[in-house]
Design a protein that fits this description.
This protein is mostly helical and 283 residues long. The chain is built from twelve helices and two strands.
């Protein structure tokens, strides 16, 4: 047990180091990818700023511009949280999930199964895309800009809980991703992974308050909160930092912890069941 505790951090460091060396071998490509990623997120930010500008221009003087109850500084924290979680996913998990179907098709999964480490750990973290972390700097700058403009400054508890719920959000997203990627073992090739991932993350990047007011909105909110807890991924950590937690949303924060544990266990079960169906490329 003690040996395993020492082994996995060493492996993780080795994977990360090798990936960085590989990326630095092609520095121009690394810089272009990092700039492209940042420009894309800045364009998304500009879109929301334009929406707030239009709201401010068309509302009575003295009223606070808001989208679904989120004032502008609060919404900037929400966008920054989206950037943080998505950049972590794209840097450390998406490259490996996309490659899993190729490992199955070409027989590379055989070699992963022969290694004396957990297979899910190996196929999930073997590669990193460091250029995707460029958005983290944009997110940090955005939070630094928004925090002094919030109606109420975050408490010490909020600062302590924020990274916890960011980790919860990453864990839920990872669970969905690895479960989806594992289907390539049954299907042979899963080319729809990135498309489906884009559709799922689209739901997470908006405040859950917009899903309401009618039957369809309520159905979407309940489905993507309690059945597939995508809406808690961004909403809970962003609310912890940007807004005081009410009694209603304190319950949601507790649910997010339970949803994280259930998501990780469920994705682990799916991955193991998929491995049981795997047939070696040489058989």
């Amino acid at each position: 047990m003690n040996e395993a505790i020492r082994l996995y951090p060493k492996l993780l460091w080795t994977f990360a180091r090798n990936s960085l060396i590989r990326d630095m071998t092609f520095r121009s490509n690394f810089v272009i990818e990092a700039i492209s990623s940042v420009v894309w997120m800045v364009m998304n930010l500009a879109f929301y700023l334009l929406v707030f500008f239009q709201i401010e221009q068309n509302q009575p003087a003295g009223e606070t511009a808001a989208i679904a109850g989120w004032a502008k500084p609060e919404f900037l924290v929400f966008i920054a949280t989206t950037m943080i979680i998505n950049s972590i996913m794209q840097a450390f998990f998406m490259p490996n999930a996309q490659e899993l179907s190729e490992l199955v098709r070409a027989g590379g999964l055989d070699f992963a199964l022969l290694k004396p480490v957990d297979t899910q750990f190996l196929v999930s973290l073997r590669k990193s895309k460091w250029s995707a972390l460029g958005n983290l700097f944009v997110a940090i700058a955005l939070i630094a800009y928004a925090l002094p403009r919030l109606a109420a400054a975050p408490s010490l508890l909020s600062w302590l809980l924020y990274p916890v719920y960011v980790v919860c959000g990453v864990s839920i997203m990872y669970s969905v991703m690895i479960a989806l990627a594992a289907t390539s073992i049954w299907l042979g090739r899963n080319q729809t992974l990135y498309d489906f991932w884009f559709y799922i993350t689209n739901f997470s990047r908006y405040p859950m308050e917009i899903y309401g007011g009618n039957f369809l909105g309520d159905a979407l909110r309940l489905t993507f909160t309690y059945l597939l807890p995508i809406l808690v991924v961004i909403n809970v950590p962003a609310r912890v930092l940007a807004k005081p937690l009410s009694t209603e949303y304190a319950g949601l924060a507790v649910f997010a912890l339970a949803a994280t544990a259930v998501s990780l266990l469920a994705s682990r079960w799916v991955f193991k069941k998929a491995l049981q169906s795997y047939r070696s490329a040489s058989s």
